[in-house]
Amino acid sequence: MTEITHQQAEIILRETLAKGREMGLKPLSVVVLDAGGHPKAFLREDGASPGRFEIARGKAYGAVMLGMGGRAQMARAEAQAYFMAAVNGAYGGKVIPVPGGLLVKDGDTVIGAVGVTGDTSDNDAEAGIAGIEAAGLTPEP
Amino acid sequence: MTEITHQQAEIILRETLAKGREMGLKPLSVVVLDAGGHPKAFLREDGASPGRFEIARGKAYGAVMLGMGGRAQMARAEAQAYFMAAVNGAYGGKVIPVPGGLLVKDGDTVIGAVGVTGDTSDNDAEAGIAGIEAAGLTPEP
Amino acid sequence: MTEITHQQAEIILRETLAKGREMGLKPLSVVVLDAGGHPKAFLREDGASPGRFEIARGKAYGAVMLGMGGRAQMARAEAQAYFMAAVNGAYGGKVIPVPGGLLVKDGDTVIGAVGVTGDTSDNDAEAGIAGIEAAGLTPEP
Amino acid sequence: MTEITHQQAEIILRETLAKGREMGLKPLSVVVLDAGGHPKAFLREDGASPGRFEIARGKAYGAVMLGMGGRAQMARAEAQAYFMAAVNGAYGGKVIPVPGGLLVKDGDTVIGAVGVTGDTSDNDAEAGIAGIEAAGLTPEP
Fold it and tell me: Do A34 and D50 touch (CB under 8 A)?
């Protein structure tokens, strides 16, 4: 089984944060989850508010559990808010259905997900895409 | 180390309640949280309903955890209701995203938050701002 | 109905902390709950660890909900641990059954409870008793 | 302001894992929490079981919230099991009271905590101590 590695996760964290600094974003927090939705790596930059782990994980958790990126989740939430609310109840309230939640694929296989938070959702997603690509993997926003 | 002190918290409680009486508000409840969202001080005036601790804490908790005051949270909730609902799930249902939740800053550093409840949200916020300023600190509504 | 007042609560906080300082105790945290188990007032001294609200409330909450002080709860927990564990499940995990949880009586009527934490359970209780008596009320440890 | 930094957290992760490899330990997982108990950084080595984030955080969370290291918590749990069980209920079940939970001090000030899991509790603690010291900070086991 192809599983996201410790080394890939470290590259994703480092390069997502580097992209954020290059773009001039606010302090970011980045989580990498494995294909089961469990934390593999996390980093919160200085100056980010204390509750950022839950937001980053929420973006990535929904991606893994539903098999769809944050942008697709947001579209569903806007079309049918009660459905995503109900899904969230089923997942213990851990899902944040907005951009910045990114599936991580190795070829066609989902091997994990990344959640980025701190700036606008679109900027969060852009930084995360750069991080995933720097690790030689394929993001699905 | 810059951390909200016991003495600052007592001033904030006393002066927020004094402002509320001066404004002729209904009985108020006021909580002071530290920069990690943990209660430092609380007072509920006679005549306030019994569940006011949770409301006061909810206003202040979201402020600390997200790094934004209650007025900014309310704007986000009105623009994208499902997002704030999801955030609240991620924080165990402890967030009340309305005015009356105020970040407390010492210069540029967030050292805690204040939550006020009992009258209208706008009046709650006005009383809390007076309390924070009386302690020589800077409120962010 | 006799209900603990805002003013009595403030006296209890102030005098419990004064007693702690007189006894040379570690930094204390003190909560006052009303007769329904809901927070009326709380203060955490500088230097106390951040999680002290939950411990203080847990000591006082069990006292109010069960109508017995922390010392009596501890005796029950030591005689029949599974019973107090089950009670705690029924109360959402909010009970800490040790000394430092004190019923507050006005004559024969329970009007609230006090929870003190920070030093040994026995010292916590001694400080709380002094605070309740200073308010002209009767503690039940 | 004294707060654990992103850079200190990265040193702690890297050096704790390096110590684990030097000692020949099983795959480790390491979390760094800030002084409010909120995740700052986390890494889980390849081969560690998926649920290690919760164990690592549980060891560190109790340390921060109670202001005592895992070894002291374990002593209390062994002397008075129902007390630590009750404390855990009050903290939403997030406390794991065993060695490997380490307070992080800068001089006398608690600035965070580290949780290490994967090998025996004593080995976990030894690796974490090395990581904290490598960052120029003081561990309290």
Answer: yes
Q: From CA D36, how far away is CA B36, in angstroms rounded?
A: 4
The pLDDT value recorded for residue C2 is 73
Q: How far apart are CA C87 and CA C19, in angstroms?
A: 32
Burial of D79 (0-12, 13-18, 19+ CB in 10 A): exposed
CB contact under 8 A, A34 and D43: no
Mean pLDDT taken over chain B: 96
Shortest CA distance from B5: residue in chain C: C46
pLDDT tens for each residue of A18-35 = 999 999 999 999 999 999
The domain ranges of chain B are: 6-140
Residue D27: DSSP 8-state: P
B109, containing H or E segment: strand B109-117
Report the distance separating Cα D15 and Cα D130, nearest Å: 7
Please provide the DSSP assignment of A43-112 as one string.
EE-TTS-TTHHHHHHHHHHHHHHHTS-HHHHHHHHHH-HHHHHHHHHHTTT----STTEEEEEETTEEEE
Q: What number is the ipTM of this complex?
A: 0.95
Q: Which two tokens stand for residue B141?
A: 């509504």
**Tokens found for residue C21:** 């300082």
pLDDT at A1 (0 to 100): 53
DSSP state of D23: H
Task: Give, as one character, the DSSP assignment of residue B32.
Answer: E
Q: Rounded to an integer, what distance in angstroms lies between the CA atom of residue A60 and that of residue A96?
A: 8
What mean pLDDT comes out for the span A48-59? 97
In the numeric block, the tokens 């459905």 are attached to: A83
Domain B6-140 falls under CATH 3.30.450.150: yes
pLDDT 10s digits, B60-102? 999 999 999 999 999 999 999 999 999 999 999 999 999 999 9
Alpha helices in D1-141 (DSSP H): 6-23, 52-66, 70-79, 81-90, 121-134
A81 interaction partners in chain B (CB closer than 8 Å): 81-82
Mean pLDDT of chain A: 96
H or E element at residue A17: helix A6-23
Q: Which residues of D touch C77 (CB under 8 A)?
A: 82
